[in-house]
Amino acid sequence: MRVNFGPPVSLDFLDGYLFRLLQEIVSKHGLEDSGFENYYGSRIAEKIGGLIEYEERLARYLLKGYPGRRVVHAGIGVGVLACVLACNGMTVAGVEYYPKRVASAHHLRTALIGIWPEVEARYEIIEGSYPGALMERAKTAPPTSRFLPRWRTPKPAAGPSIPSPWFDSNAILIFTNVASGWSDDKLASIIGSLPRFAEVLLDLRLFGAIRDEEQDRTALFDRIAATARSAERLRELAVGSHFARFVFT
Ligand SMILES: C[S@@+](CC[C@H](N)C(=O)[O-])C[C@H]1O[C@@H](n2cnc3c(N)ncnc32)[C@H](O)[C@@H]1O
């Protein structure tokens, strides 16, 4: 098995390679069964590539500012951003509750491991809803079992529950385009989980709801900033996006 000790993997290369993999998944499983639907279907139909602009900008920002760090990406979809980060040395947990997208995320992960074996240890896919799925994750030993041979299948941890390895005060938590209509309770529970991480990056416009009005984005920013050590808007990060950074440790 070849191990890649070379320099970080070019984002331009990954953009094209992931696009090819997305095309293969769609031709094999179709837009519906792959969970791609219009969201990823339009990327393919319009030949946008594996990464869309805000993902590429965010990837560059994270790889430059947080090299080698642990990242939790909540709501990964099929996980293209997680793939890019894991290929470039970050250790990533991707949380996703839509099973068809989870299956497609596993297809991408497996394809990448075939080329960059080190991705197996660096990229874990956690099926379920953030934050509950991360808490549940504490009850099993790493890594995920789906693509491991039987003899390497993890056993559930014995005894009392242990802290989730992914609620890590050194890790970065990111959310991109998760405008899926969270209830007030869900939003409160997600906001309540943020201080368990070192830093959180999220798009104020697409976080549990769509906030097209600046006053709504400001209200969300202020609500989270009240619990953080510091907070800033990252206006340079993506044209048309409204990323903010919250520092908790
Ligand atoms: C519109 S897609 C975007 C995917 C990816 N973040 C991106 O920027 O392309 C949002 C995804 O987040 C997932 N999602 C939303 N809230 C979630 C939560 N609390 N836990 C896990 N997945 C979530 C949805 O199932 C969906 O696949």
How would you characterize the overall build of this protein?
With 249 residues, the chain is α/β, with parallel strands linked by helices. It has one domain (53-145, 164-247): Vaccinia Virus protein VP39 (Rossmann fold, 3-Layer(aba) Sandwich). The protein is 41% helix and 14% strand. The chain has 9 helices and 7 strands; from the N terminus they run αααβαβααβαβαβαββ. Strands 3-2-1-4-5-7-6 form a 7-stranded mixed beta sheet, with helices on both faces. Helix 4 links the parallel strand 1 and strand 2. Helix 1 packs antiparallel against helix 5 (99-115) and helix 3 runs parallel beside helix 4. The longest helix has 23 residues, at 11-33. The model is unreliable at 143-160 (pLDDT under 50). S-adenosylmethionine is lined by residues 39, 74-77, 95-98, 101, 129-130, 176-178, 180. Residues 39, 74-77, 95-98, 101, 129-130, 176-178, 180 line the site of S-adenosylmethionine.
Summarize the structure.
By secondary structure, this protein is of the alpha/beta class.
SSE blueprint:
Elements: H1 11-33, H2 37-45, H3 53-65, E1 70-74, H4 80-87, E2 91-96, H5 99-115, H6 119-122, E3 123-127, H7 132-137, E4 172-175, H8 184-193, E5 199-203, H9 214-225, E6 230-233, E7 243-247
The structure holds S-adenosylmethionine.
